[in-house]
Amino acid sequence: MVLFRLLGLLLITLALMALGSDALRSLEAGSVQIRSLAELWALLSQTSLDAFLGWIAAHAAAVSGPLNTVFSYPAWAVLGVVGIVIAGLIRLAR
Predict the structure, then answer these.
(1) For all residues of the chain together, what is the average pLDDT?
(2) Where does the pLDDT of residue 73 fall: very low under 50, low under 70, confident under 90, or very high at 90 and above?
(3) Sign of the dihedral through C-alpha 11, 16, 17, 22
(4) Quick check: 39 and 47 in contact, CB under 8 A?
(5) Angle at CA of residue 73, ends 10 and 42, nearest 5°
(6) In this structure, how many other beta carbons lie within 10 angstroms of the beta carbon of residue 48?
(7) CA distance 89 to 94
(8) What is the pTM of this model?
(9) CB 3.0 to 4.6 Å from 75: which of 18, 49, 60, 70, for a disulfide?
(10) Residue 64 and residue 70 in contact, taking contact as beta carbons nearer than 8 Å
């Protein structure tokens, strides 16, 4: 339980960091600049993103389309929603 609670809080923290990064990028550019989840993952490790997408395409082709859609969403939104869901489910389980 504690591990999942920490995971939820970590994901919420990462979502807030990604939101702050997008805000700073937008201020610097003078227009709205939002980084997608795929762009964020590519910044961290492009080879692992390519390997993951290749593995999904080879082993679970039916999930490839919806997964690409999720990867096109803003990183802060995806991380925040997943973190809030995990934290909420753990709170309900208590």
Answers:
(1) 94
(2) very high
(3) positive
(4) no
(5) 70
(6) 11
(7) 9
(8) 0.87
(9) 18
(10) no
